[in-house]
Each structure stands twice: as structure tokens, then as C-alpha cells.
Amino acid sequence: MLSNKAKYALKALLYLAQQDENHISRTIEIAEAANIPKKFLEQILLDLKRGHFVGSKQGKFGGYYLLKSKNDITLADIHRLFDGAIALLPCASLNFYERCSDCVDESECLLRHGLITIREETLKAMQGITIASLVKI
Amino acid sequence: MLSNKAKYALKALLYLAQQDENHISRTIEIAEAANIPKKFLEQILLDLKRGHFVGSKQGKFGGYYLLKSKNDITLADIHRLFDGAIALLPCASLNFYERCSDCVDESECLLRHGLITIREETLKAMQGITIASLVKI
DNA sequence: ATTAATCCTATAAAGTTAGTAGAGTTTAAA
DNA sequence: TTTAAACTCTACTAACTTTATAGGATTAAT
Fold first, then answer.
1. Mind telling me how many Å the CA of B49 is from chain A's nearest CA?
2. Is A67 on the interface with B (CB under 8 A)?
3. Where are the domains of chain A?
4. What is the pLDDT of residue A104?
């Protein structure tokens, strides 16, 4: 399941994607439109900025705007930024690999192979969902 | 990500699936073979029993055995039993549907449609992974 | 200087997870 | 009929994670 952070991030990105080119959106504007607690959204937008998904303009009349193309922001990206690994266990993860503490011999783990298959399929599906594809629906 | 409960459940089921037909496995035996805390495993096996995936024999020389066919226990089943919804948000879930509290109009939610697509694909993949398929690898 | 915005860090409340503990119940065998 | 060895059940707790909230610092336009 997605955390609220990830859900709010997606909603915020969808909001930004629907604005006119060159429009800058204030946090409060996004928060009210998407029904997200404002101070919580501040953190989320900062995370998105650090992830290079959005840009910001500081000071009066400042705000946020999409930095990447709508086609280049995928569900997989946002999941990884806020909720971490796509895989069902760290040992099956590409970007968040970690050994299971209870694992005796990873190469002989029956579970891991299946979970790698799942990760491959899920990742492919999640990379197919972009901000652009969601807005188009 | 899978909880430890779900991971341990899968490891226990894999252990049971590898035993001889009619063999009954004690909790301690599974716990040691799969490196799972015994008292924690007790709870998990009870959950699996309540889910009708395993059967048990009580008393001395009792233990657990697979109740369903290896082919009929899928990763999706175990995920749902221990970790709940396959979908990324409750509003996109089949078995654990719930409305988002921050949702203004579900029918107009841009996110939901995409998440339903993901759920369909992930579910299909997870239903393709069975205890039998994992043991065969 | 003032105003309105982002930026940053700390903290707290609530919920979830991962176990542990201990007693109860059932069954087989001596 | 007693004992041993197993499952069954409920309660609890410690650690962790999530979900925010608070308060100020910084930046930039007027």
C-alpha cells in the first residue's frame, strides 16, 4: 500500500500537471485543491524538489512547478522516493537491496526467485503509469 | 513490502510442501529449519489454519500439514491473509475496499484508475506464483 | 521595511509490527 | 490414570513507522 505521503505527492503532481505552462502553484493552493494538510504538503513538495521532480521559486509570488516532463514521472519513481522498494522483500529489490536477517543461504532461497519475478512485473506496470497517462484518463 | 509474518508464513508453507505426503511437521521443527522464532511461528501457523491453508493434529505427535494443494496456495492469498490489500490504495482494492478520507469525488479521481490497472496486473502476477511453482524452481 | 512565500528541523501522537509470556487444551502412550 | 508433548489462545510490550504539527529561518518582490 502507498503511504499518505506518496498519495499526496501523486495528487500534488497531478495538480501541477494540470496547470498552464509557466504557472507557479503555491503550496496552499495545491493543499486546498487536493485536500492535503498544508504543513504536511510542504515537506512532501520539498522531498519532490530534492528528487528533482518539481522546481520551486522562493519568496513572494513563489511556488512550485513541474521540473520533469509529465511523461517522465512514473508511479515507480514516486513509490521509490516515498515508500522505498517496489519488491516485496529487500532481498529481491534492485534499488533497496538488503539481505534478510533470517536467511541462511540466499542463493538457495526458494522465495527470492518468485519475488524477483513479481518485482519485475510490478515494476514494469508501475513504470507504465505516468503523470501524463493519469491526467489523460 | 511483505511483513515478517507473511514472509515466515511463506517459508513455513514451503517447508511443509517439501515434506513427504502424510508427514506431520511440528512447529519447532519448522521454526528451526526456516529460522523463525518459535512462538511467533505458532501464531502464524494458527492464522494459516484459520485460513484453511494448513491443517493440524493436536496433542502428542501432533503438528501441521498442508491442507490445500500446493498449486492452490498463491502469493496473493498469503499477502491478503497477512498483509491485506494487493492494491496500492484501499479505494482501488477488490477485497479491502475503503474510500479515501481525503477524496472529494471518487469517480473523478485521476489516481484511482491507474491504481486499479496496477492492482489488476500485480494480482495476476501474484496469483501466478504458487507454493508449487516456488518449490519447483 | 513589509509581506508572502519557500525552507528546515524538531517533536509528538497514534498506529503498526514483531515479537514474548504464560496459561489452557488436546492427544498418545507408558 | 498419569505424564509428556504438542497445539491453542489471549494478553502484553517494546520498537518502529507514519502522520502529521509547530515554530522559526530564509528568500525575494514590492
1. 21
2. no
3. 4-66, 75-129
4. 85
Does position A137 have pLDDT exceeding 80, yes or no?
no
Query: Which residues 6+ apart lie within 8 Å of A87 measured at CB?
Result: A93, A94, A96, A115, A116, A118, A119, B1
Contact residues on chain B for A104, CB-CB shorter than 8 A: 35
Residues with pLDDT less than 70, chain B: none
- The answer for residues whose C-beta is within 8 angstroms of residue A92's C-beta and 6 or more apart is A112, A115, A116, A118, A119
**Given this model, what pLDDT does residue B104 score?**
85
**A54, β-bridge pairs:** A66
CATH class of A4-66: mainly alpha
Q: Between residues 77 and 96 of chain B, which touch chain A (CB distance below 8 Å)?
A: 79, 84-85, 87-90
Cα angle, residue A95 at apex, residues B80 and A48 outer, rounded to 5°: 90
Long-range Cβ contact pairs of A123-128 (< 8 A, separation 24 or more)? A123/A76, A123/A86, A123/A94, A125/B117, A125/B118, A125/B121, A125/B122, A126/A74, A126/A75, A126/A76, A126/A79, A126/A86, A126/B118, A127/A74, A127/A75, A127/A76, A128/A74
Q: Pull the grid cell for residue B80.
A: 491478503
User: Tens digits of per-residue pLDDT, B41-78?
Assistant: 999 999 999 999 999 999 999 999 999 999 999 999 99
CA distance B135 to chain A (A): 6
> Per residue in A17-49, pLDDT tens?
999 989 999 999 999 999 999 999 999 999 999
Contact, A112 CB vs strand D, < 7 Å: no
